[in-house]
Amino acid sequence: MKLLVAVKRVIDYNVKPRIKPDGSGVDLANVKMSMNPFDEIAVEEAVRLKEAGTAEEIVAVSVGPAKAQETLRTALAMGADRAILVQTDEDVEPLGVAKLLEKIVAEESPDMVILGKQAIDDDTNATGQMLAALLEWPQGTFASKVEPSDGKIAVTREVDGGLETVSLSLPAVVTTDLRLNEPRYASLPNIMKAKKKPLDTKSPDDYGVDVGRRLTITKVAEPPKREAGEKVESVDAIVAKLKEMGVA
Predict the structure, then answer these.
(1) Residue 193 CA: distances (Å) to CA of 44, 50, 73, 82, 199
(2) What is the rounded CA–CA span in Å between residue 163 and residue 39?
């Protein structure tokens, strides 16, 4: 089985984002960037499938600036075999990414595409679903467990009411949730080996995909600061306070 794993370069999850003074977006200057945490889980799952003998090759793909090569090298160090960077300085929306992945899937013919359920920068949670729709493939989103067998794959999904298990015929699209696995740290020897693994650089024009923005950001602002709480001495005081606030 051949696996295609999509990864994205985002602000490191430990960094507190800063809003640009003009409110036009998030300031990325001199900010630590890393692989989207949900995509790390996707890479880890692909590597585990390969280690179990289920998969034979893992191809990592990213859409972004030249510096996204660092993110792909991380995926290669974790265990991916080769990588493809679709290089663009545009901020590509989920539909554009899905269209690019559709073209790459046509070239690579993977049996499964694995990607994070969402990116922590825009939290859109749409790329996997859009890709499945474009490919007309079955999809298993929010996966917390993946079990392949006999040309199919059982995906346990995290839904509002608990867990749901769906059986998908391959090829399929799977998006990963937090509880699927714990991503490994790339060892120094594997980091060195990753430098020699093939990484192809393409452009959106190579695939004939228009990645121009279809949405306009009108304003980006910090969330309102949480107001301080107030202590009360009794249940009656709580009820009275709630009535005063119009809650009870």
Answers:
(1) 17, 18, 10, 11, 13
(2) 21
Place of tokens 């995509």: 39
Global pTM reads: 0.86
| Locus of tokens 């890479």 | 43
DSSP-assigned beta bridge partners for residue 31: none
At position 174, the amino acid (one-letter code) is V
Residues in the chain: 248
- Is the pLDDT at 246 greater than 80? The verdict is no
The per-residue pLDDT of the chain, averaged, comes to 92
Q: How far is CA 58 from each of CA 154, 191, 213, 237, rounded to the nearest angstrom? A: 20, 16, 30, 61
Distances in Å between the Cα of 154 and the Cα atoms of 165, 191, 211 are: 7, 32, 33
- The residue type found at 14 is N
Q: Which two tokens stand for residue 182?
A: 């714990």
Residues 123/64/111/181 CA torsion (nearest 10 deg): -50
- Gap between the Cα atoms of 237 and 230, Å rounded: 11
Structure tokens at 100: 């690019």
Cβ atoms of 63 and 92 within 8 Å: the answer is yes
Query: Rounded to an integer, what distance in angstroms lies between the CA atom of residue 171 and that of residue 192?
Result: 33
Phi, psi for 206 (deg, rounded to 5)? -60, -25
Tokens of 111: 């049996």
Q: Which residues, in sequence order, are CB contacts of 39 under 8 Å at separation 6+? A: 5, 6, 7, 8, 115, 116, 119, 176
**Percentage, residues of the chain above pLDDT 90:** 71
Per-residue DSSP letter, 178: G
Phi-psi region of 237 (alpha: psi -120 to 50; beta: other; left: phi over 0): alpha
